[in-house]
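thought: fold this chain, then report.
action: predict
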Amino acid sequence: MTSRTETSVPIPESSEPPEPSFGVEPLTGNCRRVFDRGEHALIGVSPGNSYFSEELLTGLLRWTALRFDRIDVVIPDSARRETFLALGYAPERARKKSWEEASRIRNRVLRAWEAAGVTSRPFAAHRLSRLTEHPAYQALLHRTEQEWAKGSVLRESYLAAARSVLHGLLKGAAPTQEQAELAARHLIAETPLLIGAPDVFGVASSAAFYHKRIDFIDAVYAGHTSLDAHPDQGFVIVQREPAEAPAPAPASVQAVAGPRLLP
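observation:
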């Protein structure tokens, strides 16, 4: 019986992981200019949001590090506490639960950063509670509180966003006005970082990233409120693009990849 000789075709392997693909939508022309400068990226990671898987974060952090000089990730731990209070948790339980959630997310972010393989870039993962004593943050929070107190377009945007979050957590039940106002504190606490990160982090410019549009941020960047963003602050929607279907392997490779042909 004649034996069949099989020839394996080597498939080149890259030592570097492939660059993930993300699409961006800067809110304004100035946001585009800030993005193009590539000096500082601020990434918000929301606890309780299944979008932020470790795999997604690994790709996003690698993609960002290839474009920006410095990256800071913020996890809103203390702000999340307000949401739990709105849901009826006792204060101590709300504090503990928000801290535990933030710890899990922070550990996930750190694992993703290590897996991204770009550790030469300056990087830090912060709990929001560790930033709130910064004088620049305090000044920006005061301005935000003043806008909230006016009963302005911004206030209504905060309340609409809070109701949307609570609606899901309450399994479809409509939140009360009191619950919505309490949960909106979460968004108020995040706003200083989304409009004035250059002053808080001591950078020349900063692009804040999130994966979807946020009404209250749209209102600020569109100039519909008296609360304006730092001139070197941008806001950019970033979303992972669908992976392309792999190209068919060459015929010689397909033959090797199939069942072994016995003599």
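thought: worth noting. The chain has one domain: 23-243.
final: tokens above.
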